[in-house]
Specification:
By secondary structure, the protein is of the alpha/beta class. It is built from four helices and seven strands.
Length: about 100
């Protein structure tokens, strides 16, 4: 049996989060979206409760701030792929366990 790859999506645009989840699960049947958060506040709350995944897909701009605020409030060792339309945060992204930055 193939090991499941648990993914968390942090994206404040519901349609974008749903589209990403659909693409990921179509690419590989072993991918499971275990959670989706739309704000810095909710993400921090859940990570503090112990929420974990194998990989995070994170938008830079969230409704209540920049996603980098999450990483300044909780320590996350999970690899991160940033998904955003803004290229000015590339260097900052690679300082918080980022493995890719998709524009």
């Amino acid at each position: 049996m193939k090991r499941m790859i648990n993914i968390i999506i942090i994206e404040d645009e519901k349609l974008s989060a749903e589209h990403l989840a659909t693409l990921l699960t179509k690419i590989d049947e072993s991918i499971e979206i275990v959670a989706s958060f739309d704000s810095v506040k909710k993400s921090v709350e859940e990570f503090k409760k112990g929420m974990k995944a194998d990989l995070l897909f994170v938008d830079v701009h969230l409704a209540d701030g920049l996603s980098f605020d999450i990483f300044s409030q909780v320590q996350i060792r999970t690899p991160v792929i940033f998904t955003t339309a803004f290229d000015q945060y590339t260097l900052k992204a690679f300082k918080v366990n980022s493995i890719d930055y998709l524009l």
